[in-house]
Sequence to fold (137 residues):
Amino acid sequence: MLMFRKMTIDDLDKIYKDIELRPLLTIPPIGKKFGVVVDLDNCIVGGVTGYIEGENATIQKLIMKAQKDYTIYEDGLIRSLIHTLDLDGVRFLFVEPLQDVNLYTNIGFKKFNSCMANSANNTFYIDLKAFFCEQNC
Fold:
């Protein structure tokens, strides 16, 4: 059975021992850390981690093991993360995708344009409250 769920303390050892998934844990957080995993038949096949600062959250790492339908799992993982963070009181979610910008824009992320942002910045964001009021969810 496929489940998207919050990362638990019991997951840490499994993730750390998996060389593909280990970066989910080893990237240093700047604020309060969060994590959501993809659990397929009691095996973690992917996850997303990042940190929360006030009402903002930032994705630091998204990893999905190569398998059939992994792009659908990535989409579900991001949507599950949005739901989880919304329940935790987060208002905005930010990401700097290194690849597959369409994954984020198809969900509803928008380019972050700010006078404080670096001109080379590739930051995208989504307003979690607005996400649940639109057709994207």
About this structure: The CA atoms of residues 16 and 22 lie 5 Å apart.
